[in-house]
Model the fold of this input.
Amino acid sequence: MKVLKGISAASGLAMGVACLYTSEIESTLPRYAVDEQGVPREVERLKAALERAQREMRSMIRVAESQFDKEAAGIFNTHLLILSDAMLFKKTAGFIETRKVNAEHAVADVFAEYIEKYKKEKGHFQELTHDFIDARDRILGGFGWDTGKFKCEVGEQRPVIVVAKRLTPSMVLNIPPKHVLAFVTEEGGFTSHATILARSYGVPIIFGVEAEKELDCGVEIIVDGSRGEIVVAPDEKTRVYFVRKIELLAKKKNVCAVNRDRFAHTRAGQRITLKVNISTPEELNMINGMPHDGIGLLRTEFLFKRRESPPSEEEQYRMYRDIFSAEAGPVTVRLLDLGSDKLPPFLTLPENINTDLELRGAMAVETFPEIYVTQARALLRAAADRNVRLLYPMVSDVNDLETFRSIVAKARNQMAKENAVLPTGRMQEGIMIETPAAVMLAGELMAAVDFVNIGSNDLLQYTLAASRGNMLSEKRYHILHPALLKLIEMVAREGRKAGREVCLCGEIASFEEFYPLFLQIGLKSFSVAVSKFNDIKCELIHVERSKDKQLLTGFYRTRSKEEADRYFHSMSLTIEKGFSGTK
Done:
């Protein structure tokens, strides 16, 4: 028996045989020279392969829309944009013509430039390399090459634990959910498109493991998503232990099914506010019939990304109007949040600017004021007679808050002079607490606003000086670092004093095992990804807010990622033990 340690991207337990899913196209791809007369034929082959790839991608989009959430379709629409880019065809055809090589060779080399470029980036941009690999393989598949398959037949016959060097969105979609018990990969990230898709399978996901080196086809393994561990060839005692845990987890889910139509509450009956994060309008279709408390975070960046010019006020207005009309509960809409991983192509940036430190929040507003005025006008028009709350990103002090307010006031004044319809009364305003400075000034900030949202992703990276999505950081630091939880506890305490709602809406809100601690520090409001809503609601049903302060002090004593993992493992055993004794 051997235990491998990785990084958990989705919790849960799975036991089964490992099956390697591999793409050997990079080593077997044909590369040869062509003469002048052969160039036109290769260009035609390229054109035909691209057209086949585009047709297949459109088919995958339809499958994604019917089998997955709308976010999946959005991911594949992005891939379709890559495949349909006229510059891609022009550049690859030019490669064939100037270097006199076959079409497959040209495709591989052109994409190698994109892939290497994004590998040098950081955070979410680095994770986009997998999207370019996926698009490349889709084109190579258009030539008739097999770009991915299981190494052992069992993967095609029954559910297995899928082991791979990397996940790509197409790979996830190509494997039927009924055949997947878990995913284990070497490369990955919390926010990569492939991970987002894989999470919708509801199975554990672990990355950061030398998967192809350590695991063979057919070997029995246990995947513990909560601890980020893989047990290889478990002994009988270990097998019996995990079989029991898996049985308890199944019972837990049955209880959740009975409570499907109830709003979120704890085991003791405490009502919890549970909202959804919305990143694209298509996700609204997924929350129909879902007992949620409104949209806790509407990200507006989807309107600005991948555009050569900013969206007009009218375009934004129509989109916001449709979203607000579709949601019965309150909608918390965040103004454009710029950052290194979400910069629109149309922006011309000042030279030598650090987009993680010098183009966030109020500094972005002062750099591009007209973009924010236009957005504020569109939001004010769409919010008339709707329950809409404005949320300002990356606010570190009251001066930042006033910068955002001045933009909204300017939009209001312009519209009043034009006799435009404005929301009656004052709209509620809130801020994203995402820096240690905002935590230290939480009391002063809460006195000036109606509510706050905690953005744990940025708060973690600025607290630890460790960039998001960096593999070294993710291996060293637990995603719920004790320092991060202490900062969140401080904000929750100030919220109780000021009588303000404190809503946790960052990535850590998607991890079920953290909720006993969240309730312990006094959080009662959360906003999570649509795909995680039911899992979190289910977890809350089995959690009772403990008055035992040892629960919190025990976690604060952890000194490493490994100790934190062991802590959550022991805590999950305690909860399961309590659950197994219930009627």
Summary: The first helix runs from residue 25 to 28. Residues 19 and 114 are 30 Å apart (CA to CA). The first strand starts at residue 2 and ends at 5. The radius of gyration is 25 Å.
